[in-house]
Write a structure and sequence with these properties.
Largest interface: A-B, 40 and 26 residues
Mean pLDDT of chain B: 83
Strand order of the largest sheet of chain B: 2-1-3-4
Oligomer: heterodimer
Number of helices of chain B: 17
Helix content of chain B: over 70%
Low-confidence stretches of chain B: none
CATH topology of the domain at 5-84 and 155-239 in chain A: Rossmann fold
Shape of chain B: elongated
CATH class of the domain at 5-84 and 155-239 in chain A: Alpha Beta
Order of helices and strands of chain A: EEEHEEHEHHHEHEHEEHH
Radius of gyration of chain A: 18 Å
Helix content of chain A: 25-40%
Distance between the termini of chain A: 35 Å
Distance between the termini of chain B: 35 Å
Number of domains of chain B: 2
Number of strands of chain B: 6
Low-confidence stretches of chain A: none
Structural class of chain B: alpha/beta
Strand content of chain A: 25-35%
CATH architecture of the domain at 5-84 and 155-239 in chain A: 3-Layer(aba) Sandwich
Strand order of the largest sheet of chain A: 6-7-8-3-9-10
Structural class of chain A: alpha/beta
Largest sheet of chain A: 6 strands, mixed
Mean pLDDT of chain A: 91
Largest sheet of chain B: 4 strands, mixed
Radius of gyration of chain B: 31 Å
Chain lengths: 240, 428
């Protein structure tokens, strides 16, 4: 089976700073692929390039056979991106925000309605969706945004630090939401510096540090290779 | 197109928020208050007002003057006795004008010798009514002077016309505009044109300023609320995002400016409207004869000039909005734009662009906002080359700026361009 996403020799420079030094990886259909690494490793830059926010300095990204440089609009149609520090329009009600976003992806009002119904179910926010997003807690906003990202059943959901800043309960709920979603055939590319979280969620992971992928594989395979009990130790040994 | 209208509606809703509506209502309330206070003062000035008169002469002429004062909207409170005591008494009252006709005034006046009338104004502020009172008294005394001097001349030179003796040269005034000529006063023509167009620069300034601030704020708020990144990844072209923001800002800016101007006119219509209609009533045929009127084609040209200028302002403001990181920075960044708009505004009020030195003229016309400020004048005085040059310049400016803005939105720069004094940080 052809991978959903293929990244080959991806490079990104900000002036003299080389943020990505030629990374390569693939995401298969229906799998959760995790990028793990410390702050400043290049995770966000990678995700921003794939979601068409940044242009690569070099390398190739193909998604469902489309080239990023030639067809960025095809990426936008089938990819949902949840940035690490995302917000919703403060003066919009949660439900209106979902409707606003759904209309970009839907071909007609009925389809948009279906997307919204789906998002309502995913978010679990119930009656609070009738309140303005400006009144939401961080956890509620994150759930709303995650529901927005997943409601259209994208071919690839890109989630940057999906549980960033959330408390234990909210983090668990969000992780369950993500895990449940791949059962419907959606692929997920996520990043986190929380290696235990990635270990719990991901089918495969890539260890990234200073713009280079150090190693990749299933969490179990990596633990065996580095003779470690968890991915944190794996990462430390891979860096050494 | 569907996505564009969808975005446009969202942008308008975002801009037309509760805070803006409250501030617009507040502006209307403030203007209404100012208008009411000023109208009350004007009514006071126009109504019959009480003044004090001390007639120490009691001659026929002095009684005539008092009678005339009575006819000229004054309620006379006659005082008697010593002048110093009367002045002291009025100092402690709410009267603020005293006319003293000294003893012997009538005799001196009727024998055509210099006679004096004293007026005391008790200043308790600088209201319009206070000034109007003294002006009316002065006009009345001038009329009395005119009457007495005419009588004097008639007595001394019975066969002569006193008016001719006092002003032997009569001036016939003509105004020439290019090939057209009309009899009339240039001061009246200029006054009428100024009165007719005085509101226009204010409207222009408000529209440009409001629209620019709207678009800067709209982009800065997307950044501050962390919604821009998500918006840039939805399946809609970057051009549509930029145009929706600009068009929404233009619409809300125009509505805000219209409300502002409505309040402004409501507050100050008591002077401008009557004066303008009166002035235009007499001067309108002269303006028509001189070709100083605007036809449909003129209004269309002005509309094109204004539309392009608004686009210039919005494109510039969009770039400034990209530079802003949050609402506060956006407000600071809009300040230079406001000052640039004020340059043509003040020049249009106090100077003639056509008589300025070439470097100054080039400098002013290099500001894209300048052109509509001078468009009406250029249309009326037939400086159409300058007008078309302005339209072409603004068109070129808009094309370049829109291309640049769309480029910024289509690349990393929409996220990485920042006006920072500290070293730039990059999120990896």
């Amino acid at each position: 089976m052809a991978p959903v996403l293929e990244v080959e020799g991806l490079k990104k420079k900000y002036g003299s700073l080389e943020a990505l030094k030629g990374i390569s990886f693939k995401v298969e259909e229906g799998e959760i692929f995790g990028l793990i690494g410390p702050n400043g490793a290049g995770k966000t830059t990678t995700l921003r390039i794939i979601s068409t926010l940044l242009t690569p300095s070099d390398g190739r990204v193909t998604f469902l056979g489309f080239d990023l440089k030639k067809n960025p609009e095809k990426f936008r149609e089938k990819i949902s991106y949840l940035p690490e520090e995302a917000g919703a329009y403060r003066n919009m009600k949660g439900i209106d925000y979902l409707e606003f976003m759904a209309k970009f992806y839907a071909t007609d009002n009925n389809e948009a309605k279906k997307y919204v119904e789906r998002a309502v179910a995913i978010s679990g926010l119930g009656e609070r969706l009738k309140d303005k997003a400006g009144t939401y807690s961080k956890g509620m906003t994150r759930k709303l945004l995650l529901a927005r990202a997943l409601m259209t059943k994208p071919a690839l959901a890109i989630l940057d630090e999906p549980t960033s800043g959330l408390d234990v309960i909210n983090s668990l709920e969000v992780r369950e939401m993500i895990k449940g979603f791949t059962r419907e055939g959606v692929s997920v590319l996520l990043s986190s510096h929380n290696m235990l979280e990635v270990e719990f969620l991901s089918d495969r992971v890539a260890l990234i540090d200073r713009g280079v992928i150090l190693d990749s594989g299933t969490p179990q395979a990596l633990k065996e290779k580095y003779q470690a009990s968890n991915l944190e130790i794996v990462f430390r040994r891979a860096v050494q | 197109m569907k996505n564009f209208s969808h975005l446009l509606i969202k942008e308008i809703k975002e801009l037309l928020n509760k805070q803006l509506i409250i501030s617009l209502v507040f502006i209307l309330v403030i203007f209404n208050f100012i208008g009411n206070v000023t109208r009350t003062e004007m009514k006071k000035a126009m109504a019959k007002q009480k003044i004090a008169v001390l007639d120490q002469d009691r001659s026929e002429i002095s009684r005539n003057i008092i009678g005339a004062l009575n006819m000229a909207r004054f309620i006379i409170e006659e005082k008697t006795g010593d002048k110093e005591k009367v002045v002291q008494e009025i100092r402690n009252s709410n009267l603020d004008l005293l006319v003293v006709i000294p003893a012997g005034f009538g005799q001196l006046a009727s024998s055509f010798q210099p006679a004096e009338v004293e007026t005391y104004t008790f200043l308790r502020g600088v209201s319009i009514s206070g000034r109007t009172k003294t002006e009316i008294v002065k006009a009345l005394l001038n009329s009395t002077n005119e009457y007495l001097s005419n009588e004097y001349l008639k007595k001394k030179i019975p066969d002569a016309d006193p008016a001719l003796l006092k002003a032997p040269i009569k001036n016939r005034e003509f105004v020439v505009v290019k090939e057209k000529q009309a009899e009339g006063s240039s001061a009246v023509v200029i006054g009428a044109l100024t009165a007719q167009n005085f509101i226009l620069p204010v409207i222009l300034m408000m529209i440009i300023m409001y629209s620019s601030q709207m678009v800067i704020t709209a982009i800065a708020m997307e950044k501050q609320n962390k919604t821009l990144e998500t918006l840039l990844t939805v399946p809609v072209s970057r051009g549509a995002i930029v145009m929706a923001k600009m068009l929404a800002a233009a619409v809300v800016g125009l509505v805000s400016a219209a409300i502002y101007m409505f309040g402004f006119r409501k507050a100050f219509d008591f002077t401008s409207m009557d004066d303008i209609s009166k002035a235009l009533g007499g001067v309108a045929p002269i303006l028509k004869q001189l070709g100083l009127t605007i036809n449909t084609q003129g209004y269309i040209l002005f509309g094109i000039s204004l539309f392009l200028t608004i686009l210039c302002a919005l494109a510039l403001a969009t770039i400034l909005g990209v530079l802003a990181e949050d609402y506060r920075t956006a407000q600071s960044l809009s300040v230079p734009l406001v000052f640039i708009v004020m340059v043509p505004y003040f020049i249009s009020l106090f100077a003639d662009i056509n008589t300025m030195s070439l470097p100054a003229k080039v400098l002013v016309l290099a500001i894209p906002f300048s052109h509509p400020f001078f468009a009406m004048q250029n249309i009326m005085f037939g400086h159409l080359n300058l007008l078309w040059l302005g339209i072409a310049y603004n068109f070129l400016f808009v094309v370049v700026m829109l291309w640049w803005t769309t480029r910024i939105f289509a690349t990393d720069r929409v996220l990485t361009m920042k006006l920072k004094w500290r070293k730039k940080k990059v999120v990896l």
